[in-house]
Amino acid sequence: MVHGKGPTTLLLDLFANGHNAIIPKHIVEQDPVNALKTQIIGTGPYRIKGTPTESLWQYERNPDYFIKGLPYTDELEIHIIDDAQAMLAALLSKRIHWSGAFLHPNLDGDLAKSAAQQNANLIHGPMPGLIVTHLALQSEKPPFDDVRVRQAVSEAIKREAISALGNQTGAVGTGNYALGRWKMSKVVQEQLIGYGPDMKKRIAHAKKLLASYEAEKGKIDWRKIKIQCSSNIKFSCENAQVVQQLLKKIDVNIQLDPMLVAQHRANEVSGDFLMSLLGAAFDFDDPNDTFGQLFVTNGGRWYQRRSIPEVDALFEKQKFTADPEKRKALIWEMDQIVMNDSAYLVLLWFDLHHVRWNFVKGWTPTPNIRSTNARMDYVWLDLPELPHTQ
């Protein structure tokens, strides 16, 4: 039985999402934390064949799958290849047939295009993603506990430079999906801190903000402040280098602190950082998802730790506002507040890329990386040597 507080348009989306699963109560109630580590259950189209390793997972067709005639493929092999260059080499040699069961940011547009250009039978599939690259500023620690410093950093970062100077493409946006129904209009967006078109004016404003802070609280020693980034998530340290260069325009010279993503994300969750550049993926083009995770107090990805009671109140109010235009007004209001507060900087809603051989059929990428054909039951290979083509 599902109990709700009010009507929501997300109900069907929630039930259909790849992250939501129905799990037998008698299996998990004995040990809710560890049950699924020892008992593999489910009604999926494939079942594990053999013992998974760190480099290979093998699956075979589930003859008891609840949809008759599916899946189309008898077996699947998932090769775990962390390095994007190595993965594309495996693709070109046909050791693997497509670059992944879902789109991953480690494969950027330049790499994907380069691979597709090497063989006319390879298909490059770009797709706008429900995923942001962010710069989180720890608002509980000085100097980022002062809005002037946060706003100065935001003003200095030209969002378009992430695409122009780095390897990511995408759309500049705010706390709502930049290509979705709730996106802020360009006219309103350009009035926000960090989004104005006049960079000369923004740089001057940033310097003024920092001067005001330092006159009151003392000079900031930027040599002690580093941007944490993930060395094994390609865009993370690349974008951190872009931000590093942009901040020099306001005389802010900081170093990078690269580490593996497991440690980096753990630091974001615990608050053990000052500046952190990583990303966040979402399931829905809806502020209940993005704001609920990023900006509401104690949200699932509330890395910046900045609590704004007014935003919390607006979030609750918009959730059950049925009229789309009235709801949009509330959404834009809270969006403007958090963008101007500048604790969690949305640098880019970025594109994701995929490369596959043209004989891979039935696979369609979507903006939601978690629900793109997660079950893989409609995927098939159109090869001349297979029985169905003879």
UniProtKB/TrEMBL annotation:
Domain Solute-binding protein family residue range list? 21-299
Tell me the InterPro entries matching this sequence: SBP_5 (IPR039424), SBP_5_dom (IPR000914)
Domain of life, per the record?
Bacteria
Molecular-function GO term, any one: peptide transmembrane transporter activity
GO BP terms, alphabetized: peptide transport
Q: Which UniProt keywords apply?
A: Signal
The record, for Pfam families, names:
SBP_bac_5
Recorded family membership = Belongs to the bacterial solute-binding protein 5 family.
- What name does UniProt use for this protein? Solute-binding protein family 5 domain-containing protein
